[in-house]
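Regression test case RT-17, inverse folding.

Input:
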C-alpha cells in the first residue's frame, strides 16, 4: 500500500518565500503542502484546521518575530518544526535560540534567499521534511533493543568521551553538557552535523553556559579533561595518541567525499584506533546511519557505547543504526545519559578527594 504524503504547513511573512518554498516541495510525491500562513494568528488557526505533519518556519524576522511565532506554535502543537536559517552570524544565533525554544531542526538556506532553488538546499529540505514528517504520522517500527538498566561508568576505565550528533542534536548536547561538573574527568570530542558558522557560534554559546570549557576544534590541539571540543563544520575530527601517551584531536577535510562533515564514523573509527576499549561513546539523534560504521570497531575493541532511545530522538536514524547492529551497551534517554555521566564524575571526584 502506497504511503500518504507528508503534510506540510509553510509559515513565512513573505508571500514570495511562501511561494518559493511551496514550489520546491510541491513536485515531490512524498510531500504535500497543505497550507501556507503569513502571520502568527493565521499559522495557529491553520495548524488546528489542517493537522500538518510538519511546519516550516522562517525564524529570521525583525524584532524577534520569528521566535515569537515559534513560541506561539509550540503552545498549540507538538508537530515537528524546522527553522529556516540564513547565512549571517546574527541569524545563526537566532537559529540556535530557536532550537533551544523547541524547533526540531533547521535548514541553512545559503548566502541568500534566492539560493533556496539550488539542488543541494532543495534536497536537504526535502530529506528533513520526510524524515521528521513520517515518524510523526506513521506508527514507528518496534525497536529491536530496549532500554536496559543504567550503566555504572567508572572514569578510570576511559580516556575520552566521543559524541556523535545530527538532526535535533544541539538541544540534547546542550542538556548533557550543562549537566557536567567543571572537573569532569574526561576530554569530550563532539561531531555535530552543522555548517562551520553554526559550530563556531554553538561552541561559544556553550562555553558561556557550561561549567566545563567548550572549544571550537578548528585545528589540531591537545585535549584535556573538563573540556569539550566541538568539531568545526565542514571538517572531520580524529583522536590521536602521541608517543608520550597524551591525546590530541586532529582536524582535516579528509575524506572530502564524506556525506557528513564532520563525520561521526571518522571520529569513532579514530577512537577505536587511539583509545580502543578505553573509549566512552555516545550516539545521539540524527538522520541516516552516520556512526554505525565507526561504532563497529569500537564495539569490537570493547568500548562502551550509549545510544539515545527512540522516544526522545527527533529522528531515530543514527541511534537506530548503532543499536540494531548490536553495538549499544545501553539505550538511554538524554536525562539518563546525563545522570550516568554525572555519577561517573561524582565517583571520580570522591575517590580523588
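Golden output:
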Amino acid at each position: 500500500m502506497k504511503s500518504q504524503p507528508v503534510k506540510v504547513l509553510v509559515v513565512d511573512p513573505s508571500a514570495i518565500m511562501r511561494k518559493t518554498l511551496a514550489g520546491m516541495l510541491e513536485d515531490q510525491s512524498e510531500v504535500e503542502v497543505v497550507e501556507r500562513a503569513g502571520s502568527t494568528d493565521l499559522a495557529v488557526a491553520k495548524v488546528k484546521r489542517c493537522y500538518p505533519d510538519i511546519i516550516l518556519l522562517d525564524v529570521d524576522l525583525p524584532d524577534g518575530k520569528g521566535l515569537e511565532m515559534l513560541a506561539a506554535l509550540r503552545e498549540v502543537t507538538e508537530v515537528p518544526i524546522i527553522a529556516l536559517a540564513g547565512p549571517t552570524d546574527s541569524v545563526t544565533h537566532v537559529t540556535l535560540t530557536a532550537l533551544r525554544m523547541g524547533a526540531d531542526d533547521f535548514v541553512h538556506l545559503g548566502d541568500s534567499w534566492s539560493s533556496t532553488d539550488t539542488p543541494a538546499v532543495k534536497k536537504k529540505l526535502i530529506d528533513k521534511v520526510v524524515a521528521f514528517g513520517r515518524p510523526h504520522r506513521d506508527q514507528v517500527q518496534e525497536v529491536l533493543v530496549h532500554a536496559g538498566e543504567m550503566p555504572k561508568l567508572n572514569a578510570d576505565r576511559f580516556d575520552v568521551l566521543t559524541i556523535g550528533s545530527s538532526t535535533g542534536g544541539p538541544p540534547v548536547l546542550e542538556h548533557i553538557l550543562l549537566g557536567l561538573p567543571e572537573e569532569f574527568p574526561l576530554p569530550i570530542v563532539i561531531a555535530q552535523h552543522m555548517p562551520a558558522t553554526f559550530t563556531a557560534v554553538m561552541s561559544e554559546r556553550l562555553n558561556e553556559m557550561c561549567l566545563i570549557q567548550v572549544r571550537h576544534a578548528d585545528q589540531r590541539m591537545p585535549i584535556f579533561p573538563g573540556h569539550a571540543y566541538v568539531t568545526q563544520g565542514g571538517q572531520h575530527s580524529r583522536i590521536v595518541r602521541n608517543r608520550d601517551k597524551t591525546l590530541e584531536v586532529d582536524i582535516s577535510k579528509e575524506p572530502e567525499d564524506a556525506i557528513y562533515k564532520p563525520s561521526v564514523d571518522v571520529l569513532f573509527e579514530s577512537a577505536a584506533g587511539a583509545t580502543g576499549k578505553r573509549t566512552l561513546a555516545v550516539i545521539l539523534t540524527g538522520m541516516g546511519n552516520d556512526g554505525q560504521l565507526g561504532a563497529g570497531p569500537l564495539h569490537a575493541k570493547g568500548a562502551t557505547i550509549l545510544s539515545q532511545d527512540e522516544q526522545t530522538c527527533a529522528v531515530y536514524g543514527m541511534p537506530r543504526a548503532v543499536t540494531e547492529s548490536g553495538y549499544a551497551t545501553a539505550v538511554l534517554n538524554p536525562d539518563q545519559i546525563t545522570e550516568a555521566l554525572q555519577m561517573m564524575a561524582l565517583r571520580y571526584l570522591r575517590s580523588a578527594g
